[in-house]
């Protein structure tokens, strides 16, 4: 018997209430929309539990009926899938009602939250309570989930940009309804759950990121004390080859922690795309279309309007005023020696550009309130292809060549940013923009995406995330690791009910 039949739905309704079990066409359609090339994916129902206890009961019912469920926290995962399940007919478990900020510890600088807590909610909590701590935010919607971004191993732009690295302690509901805690949270009444990551014995937290072995219902993560001084850096570079010199400049600055944050070097097409997302869509999209085609004249005008170069560096300095001043001189000297034609924008110039204003806010942990992709959704297609690279000229050059060659083959345009994490690795976030209303173009976009994965994996560059439609395609390249993931799935979820297909893990498709 399937859960969508009357008996199972009635049992769930008894747990969450009629108002929070939704099967009407309009609601289901809202959870089907995405920006992928494969089209919308319609669920069978949407359930909105209010607590871990309600979630446990819902999961137990799904397990009894062997019916797939797809938990989501914010549903803001644009470019990777948004609020869709991987397969049609799933039950969406929307965790937005589980939105308590359980603790913010000022002395030890950490937070403990539920899945529905958004970046906007936590930021306002810190601001309204005059708590001198900063959080990390992504470049996307303020309504994204803090916890969800951790479990997807997302990247941000403060010194805490590697979200999972700075997480500490999880609570997880397993497929049989059992609740476990990771780290030192395994000890009842633990006093160190959010301050010591490892606990005793095997460390399990990573098993519940980018996976479908359990549903994370609480997560701790570290915050940073508000620094005495903060200075954003904005550098525009007009040479097409400037990215390679910038990488060489930035590697030692990152390794020596002169620039401690998630700094990025962004190509102009991606910078314009981000600016369109950050409140300028109505001004930019009519000039560039859904595929970001533009004439040289239009590009010159847009660069001038938004104070952009062919490549654009955003980073920040934090610390004592004298430290920030010293580091500013070091950074300026390094850039100007390697790139004499580069230009550092003044604070006034940054404030005059929507692109640089957003960068400045994100690097001090303020959500991007102006974020708006309503002109894109359901119309423009957008896939994020995200290989990781060493911070070296050879690696960056090879990755950019692969992208440019493959995109040109399928009739698309390169649009990317390089986010430097530790100074050793960088996330090469490449946008694939296409017209979603054109079936032939959707097909080309899907082929292009898969060929990109083929070419990057052939030369040893593994993407760190994929969209819903390509999880299995990428996972099949990973040999024994794929087998082990399915062994773990069999152990944690033998009825294959939790997010089947997530990251290519699906017992029904194991062979």
From TrEMBL:
Residues 39-226 form the FAD-binding PCMH-type domain. Its cofactor is FAD. InterPro entries: Cytok_DH_C_sf (IPR016170), FAD-bd_oxidored_4_C (IPR004113), FAD-bd_PCMH (IPR016166), FAD-bd_PCMH-like_sf (IPR036318), FAD-bd_PCMH_sub1 (IPR016167), FAD-bd_PCMH_sub2 (IPR016169), FAD-linked_Oxase-like_C (IPR016164), Oxid_FAD_bind_N (IPR006094). Its EC number is 1.1.3.15. It is an enzyme of class 1 (oxidoreductase). PROSITE patterns: FAD_PCMH. GO terms for molecular function: (S)-2-hydroxy-acid oxidase activity; D-lactate dehydrogenase (cytochrome) activity; D-lactate dehydrogenase (NAD+) activity; FAD binding. GO terms for biological process: lactate catabolic process. Keywords: FAD, Flavoprotein, Oxidoreductase. Pfam families: FAD-oxidase_C (PF02913), FAD_binding_4 (PF01565). The keyword Protein biosynthesis does not apply. This is FAD linked oxidase. It comes from Aromatoleum aromaticum (strain DSM 19018 / LMG 30748 / EbN1) (Azoarcus sp. (strain EbN1)). The lineage of its organism: Bacteria, Pseudomonadati, Pseudomonadota, Betaproteobacteria, Rhodocyclales.
């Amino acid at each position: 018997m399937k859960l969508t039949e009357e008996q199972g739905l009635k049992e769930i309704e008894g747990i969450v209430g009629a108002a929070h079990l939704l099967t009407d066409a309009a609601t289901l359609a809202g959870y089907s929309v995405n920006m992928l090339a494969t089209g919308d994916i319609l669920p069978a129902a949407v359930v909105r539990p209010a607590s871990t206890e309600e979630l446990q009961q819902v999961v137990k019912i799904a397990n009894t009926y062997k019916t797939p469920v797809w938990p989501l926290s914010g549903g803001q995962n644009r470019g990777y899938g948004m609020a869709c399940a991987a397969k049609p007919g799933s039950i969406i478990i929307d965790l937005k009602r589980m939105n308590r900020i359980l603790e913010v510890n000022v002395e030890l600088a950490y937070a403990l939250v539920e899945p529905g807590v958004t970046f906007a909610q936590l930021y306002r909590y810190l601001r309204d309570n005059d708590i001198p701590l900063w959080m990390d935010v992504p470049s996307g919607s303020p309504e994204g989930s803090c916890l969800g971004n951790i479990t997807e191993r997302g990247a941000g732009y403060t010194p805490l940009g590697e979200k999972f690295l700075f997480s500490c302690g999880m609570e997880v509901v397993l497929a049989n309804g059992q609740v476990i805690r990771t780290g030192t949270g395994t000890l009842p009444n633990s006093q160190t759950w959010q301050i010591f990551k490892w606990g005793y014995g095997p460390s399990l937290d990573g098993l519940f990121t980018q996976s479908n072995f359990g549903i994370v219902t609480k997560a701790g993560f570290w915050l940073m004390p508000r620094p005495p001084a903060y200075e954003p850096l904005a550098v525009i570079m007009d040479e097409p080859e400037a990215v390679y010199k910038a990488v060489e400049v930035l590697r030692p600055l990152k390794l020596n922690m002169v620039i401690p944050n998630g700094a990025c070097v962004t190509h102009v097409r991606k910078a314009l795309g981000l600016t369109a997302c950050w409140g300028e869509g109505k001004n930019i999209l009519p000039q560039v279309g859904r595929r970001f085609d533009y004439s040289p004249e239009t590009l010159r005008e847009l660069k001038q309007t938004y104070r952009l170069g062919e490549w654009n560096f955003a980073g920040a300095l934090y610390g004592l005023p004298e430290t920030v001043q010293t580091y500013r001189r070091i950074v300026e000297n390094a850039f100007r020696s390697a790139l004499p034609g580069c230009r550092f924008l003044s604070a006034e110039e940054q404030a005059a550009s929507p692109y640089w204003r957003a960068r400045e806010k994100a690097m001090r942990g303020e959500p991007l309130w102006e974020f708006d992709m309503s002109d894109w959704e359901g119309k423009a297609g957008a896939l994020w292809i995200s290989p990781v690279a060493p911070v070296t000229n050879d690696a960056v050059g090879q990755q950019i060549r692969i992208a440019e060659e493959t995109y040109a083959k399928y009739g698309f345009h390169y649009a990317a940013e390089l986010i430097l994490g530790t100074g050793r690795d960088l996330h090469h976030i490449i946008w694939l923009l296409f017209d979603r209303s054109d079936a032939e173009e959707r097909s080309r976009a899907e082929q292009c995406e898969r060929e990109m994965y083929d070419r990057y994996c052939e030369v040893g560059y593994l993407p760190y995330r994929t969209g819903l439609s390509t999880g299995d395609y990428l996972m099949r390249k990973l040999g024994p690791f794929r087998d082990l993931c399915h062994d773990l799935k069999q152990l944690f979820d033998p009825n294959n009910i939790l997010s089947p297909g997530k990251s290519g893990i699906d017992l029904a498709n194991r062979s």
